[in-house]
Amino acid sequence: MAYRSILVHLDQSARSMDRFELALDLASQQDAGIHTYYATSMPYLVQQLEKHHTEVLAECRERARRAGIPFFWVTEAEGMVHESLIARLTYQAFFADLTIIGQPGASAGSLSATPRDLPTKLVLTSGRPILTIPFAGAFSKTGSRAMVAWRSGRASARAVEDAIPLLRRAEAVFLLSFATTKNDVFQQENTLKKLAAYLAHHAIKTMTEVRLIEGISFGDALLNRAAEEGIDLLIAGGALPTAPAPLAEHLIREMTIPVFMSS
To answer: Which of 2, 3, 1, 233 is nearest to 95 (CA)?
Structure first.
């Protein structure tokens, strides 16, 4: 089980090529081809930035050639040029095993910038795993120390399953659940034992931990624990159509490390 097609979204932002470098590294690990999709919130910006667009294409092709990675430049789907960025990116994500995007930056929400809700919406609408890279910090690699934020349910189960190709290559995998009562701790511990046993079938060794917390949100507690363990990849369930997703939204807003989500 491995990814064979990795889609990376590029745009006019300063960190765009950093995502491409990380995508190259993952493609090398997974023996995958890299599909590069340049798109902005305002489609006409591509025409205005045609010189930049052409330079990005040439640079990406050359970097992929040097890395020995099969390279594909994804053109806009016919008839979708005037659709929203979320709609256009969702369509392209349908045809990839993994999609890599950037965290919306400080200017998110303006006419030309990435929509603030792009990551959570893309997880919800694409049916594919989405890897979001923070706009702050340097991340040319990810996944050596992975943490799974587990809460029994469809979203967490889907995220774990979709992340197996990454978890197999991790040097350390932490399974973490939170409890708000002492009675809940016992149940969560049993659940993580089952999850650890499941992942062992895939030759993935894990460490489990249930934390009793109070006076702090799940999102803050999770990011704090990830920082303590030097985690460089956080895996969590995303939003579901029928339920709010405060944890997913918090992680996307406050993320300090790459976050992998499915739902």
So the answer is: 3
- pLDDT confidence band for 113 (50 / 70 / 90): low
Q: Is residue 151, in this structure, part of any structural domain at all?
A: yes
Query: In the chain, what are the helix, strand and coil shares in percent, each to the nearest 5?
Result: 40, 20, 40
Strand order in the sheet with 259-262: 71-74, 33-38, 5-10, 98-102, 130-133, 259-262, 233-237, 145-149, 172-179, 207-212
User: Domain containing 118: what range?
Assistant: 5-133
Total-model pTM:
0.93
Token readout for 24 is: 């190259």
Give the number of domains in the chain: 2
CA neighbours within 13 Å on the CB side: how many for 200? 9
For the stretch 133-192, pLDDT in tens is 998 888 989 999 999 999 999 999 999 999 999 999 999 999 999 998 888 999 999 999
The answer on 155 and 128 residing in a single domain is no
| Burial category of 164 from C-beta neighbours within 10 Å (exposed 0-12, middle 13-18, buried 19 and up) | middle
| Burial letters 139-158, b for 16+ CB under 10 A, else e | beebbebbbbbbeeeebbbb
Which CATH number covers residue 220? 3.40.50.620
For 8, the token pair is: 């990376």
Q: 234 near 257, Cβ under 8 Å?
A: yes
Token pair listed for 261: 């989500």
User: In sequence order, which ranges of the chain are alpha helices (DSSP H)?
Assistant: 16-30, 44-48, 50-67, 85-93, 118-126, 154-167, 182-200, 218-228, 246-254
- Rounded to an integer, what distance in angstroms lies between the CA atom of residue 23 and that of residue 18? 9
